[in-house]
Structure formats: C-alpha cells, structure tokens
Amino acid sequence: MIGAELAAAQAAGAFVQLVRRGRAERYTNGFVHGVGADLVLVHQFHNFIDDGWIILPIADVAAVERGEREALFERALRGEQIATAPPPFPIALSSFAAVLRSIEAAAAPLIVESLPDPADLDPDADPDDPDFYLGVIAVLGDAHLTLDEVGTDGEWSTPEPIALSRILQVQLGTHYLRTFLAHAAPATAT
Amino acid sequence: MGDDVAMIRAALDAARAAGSLALLRRVFPGEPRVNGYVLAVSERLALVHQFHDFLDDGWTVLRIADIEEVVTEEARGFFARAFRERGLAPRLPPLEVPIATMAEALRALRREEQPVIVECETAEGGDADRYDLGAVCDVTDLHVHLRPVDGAGHWVPVEAIALGRITRLHVATPYLTTFLRYADPPPEMS
User: What distances in angstroms separate CA A154 from CA A12, A151, A182, B73, B119, one per listed residue?
Assistant: First the structure.
C-alpha cells in the first residue's frame, strides 16, 4: 500500500511528505526518485533547502501525504527555482548492501544511521537513539560495513564495523555532509 | 532549580560576552539542541542567532529554564572553526527584540508587523507540541492573540495562546520568509 503510494508519487513527480515511524524527525519531505521492494529513495528538502538524498525503509513510512500543504511547498520550490534531481549516480535499491555498493562505486561520502549494537551500548545511552556516522566507505562486506569516519572534532578515524542488518537509513549529498567535509581534516590523515 | 537556572543564565551570558558559538541542550525531545550565538540574556529568556546544519536560521527567543546545558566554543573547536571559515558570524535581527518577557517580545513583533513562529513544546513531544506561524494581533497579560497561517498557506481565525505555555519564538527565519511569500496574502489586521 505505502509502496504503491510512493511509486505513484514518483510517477507524478509530486512533492510529498513521508510521515516516519519511531524517529525523532517525524517527517521526510521531498520527491521520490526510486522505490524498491523494501527501500525508497527521496530527494529531501528541509525548510525549502535542497538537502540531498535519503534512502530509508518503506516499512518506516506510516503515511505518504500529498495535499494542499505539499502543493504549496512544490509551488514555493518552483518559485524559488529549486529543482528536484536524481542522485548524481544510479543507486540500486534492492537492499542496503546494494545501496552501499552503489555509493562505494561512486566513492561518495555518506551519512549512515544504525541501531546501536546492544553489546556496545553505553549503559547511560538510549537504546533507541541511533548511532550516527559520517564518512566514506572503507570496507563493505556481506554483513558489515566499515567506514572511515569523521568525528565531531573534524578528525578521521575507523570505528567498529556496522552490521548491515542494523542500518536505519543512509543519506548523501546533504548540506550538512558537504559542509562538514569541506572543513574537516584532509582524508589522507587516516 | 533556581541555582540551575542561574548557572545556565551565567553560561549564556558568558557565551554572549565572548561572542562564542554555543550549543544549547534543551529538555524538549522535539528540538533538543539549538546551535548559534547568544545575543541577549534576560532574567528568563535568551535571544539567539541560530543555525541549522551550518545554515543561518534567523533568530529565536528561548526560555532559560528549558536549557539544561550550554556547550561553548572551547568544547566545539571544529564547529567554531568551520563557522569562522564560512563567515558565519553573529548578526543582529532586523528589528529590536526586547526579551524581558515573551509578552514584550511579541508586542515588539506586533509593532513592527513581523510574522513569528510560536512554539509550545512539551516533555512528551510529537503531537503534544504546538507550533503556530502567523501574525501577532494582540498581546494581553496572559495571552498572545495570533492569526495563524495553516500548513496550506491559508490564514485562519485568531487564536489565543497562553503566554505561560510558550517555550520559543522564531523571528525572520528563512523558512518563515519563504513560506509567507507563497501563502495567501495576509488579511487586514485590526
């Protein structure tokens, strides 16, 4: 049902609001650029700002809204001469592993959010608060992803591998990602 | 509690005096962090030039009692440097925003015919939070009478919002400005 609505939104080229399940940011706004069996690719906008692309599970979408509000946003984006576009390279949507292989092939930086591994969880941490990684893919295996990650100090490191099964969403080309990397230490520092 | 508020107020004032980029951690799950430059501090409120993902996001008036922690520039070396390199310096709002009380701030916005976003946030977050964008019609001792614009850009009848429930105002944000450019024309204000 949701998958069909997303596919219809893609076919119509319509600006939509995805109501998310169980996330602090309750809405993802933008244009659908691909629908797989389990994943959807959205060119997202935050407050009329082009905010790159997000790949998220269709199961995380509670509703696809397309009404007067979304029509106003679409009109405003046109008025501001902000156009939607697909990502700069093709992204296979059959699984997060396929998504990551596409991103690895393009050597593109990305943001990965994943469920914390209970074994590594800080006792004071919220188990529902996702782990957040920003960097580039170092090693992509069948079950795990290792990133060269930039921390909040702007320095590169290599954290523990992330289980592909725990990935919640992947983003690329966001304003934050581009700006953060522009000011981080050179990647050769790893 | 009073001591905590006094400590937070002192930290805000120190950030203001130093012109430091500050991260304000708040008690509300909907928007737990505010990033920016503290421009003014009163007994109960702070005025902050805020940024979202390295983008200038206008000005916000916040209740000091809702702030749990003020993280300042020394602890945010990378971000402070990135802000400097991008020329993201503190700026004053386009009008004087007095912040002795929320009522005073809202009266100034009414005088200057400046639209505003009024937030009434809660510890539960989600649907329990209230968010209104509109024009200030009147401010009494207990309420602001706001003519809101709905998400579809239509002006709706004036609503009274209890001043004691207001946790935050947003002034001259790019979202507010762009949204109103594409909303219905404002009605005659009495």
Answer: 41, 5, 10, 14, 33
